[in-house]
Amino acid sequence: MKAKTCRISAKCSDLCSVELRDAKGTIIAEHQGYVPDFMPEEHYGDYVILDIDLATGKILNWKPPTEADLKRPTNQSDWTIPGSEKPESDWPATR
Length: 95
What we know:
- This protein is mainly beta and 95 residues long.
- It has one helix and six strands.
């Protein structure tokens, strides 16, 4: 087979779950709902679209999010800190 890449397009239907973890693997922030704005491609808040190099397993269309990108996962929602009921609207996710 001569395939070089695999494109995965998955519809989350507002059910996307994202966790930020520290170096020990502890969840430090989580998000439920729309696909975060820092995800690649025109996802419209509903799709996870990843282009994967079949030889290396690397995600080709990934651009590392900036600290500003991580402050709010979407323009409509914030991160939730585990153990807290209140969303964090200006939490620097990279602290």
